[in-house]
Amino acid sequence: MWGIIATWRMAKEGLELAEEILKNQGDAGDAIEKAIQAVEDFPYYKSVGYGGLPNEDMEVELDAAYMNGNTLSVGAVGAIRDFANPISIARRLSHEKVNCILVSEGAEKFAHKEGFERKNMLTERAKIHYHNRMKETVQELKPYIGHDTVGMVCLDETGKMTAATSTSGLFMKKKGRIGDSPVIGSGFYVDSQIGGASATGLGEDLMKGCISYTIVQLMEMGMHPQKACEKAVFDLDLKLKQRRGQAGDLSVIAMNCKGEFGVATNIDGFSFVVCLPHQQPTVYLVKRQGNHCVYQPASQKWLDDYMQTRMAPLKRK
Question: Is 158 a catalytic residue?
Answer without folding.
Answer: no
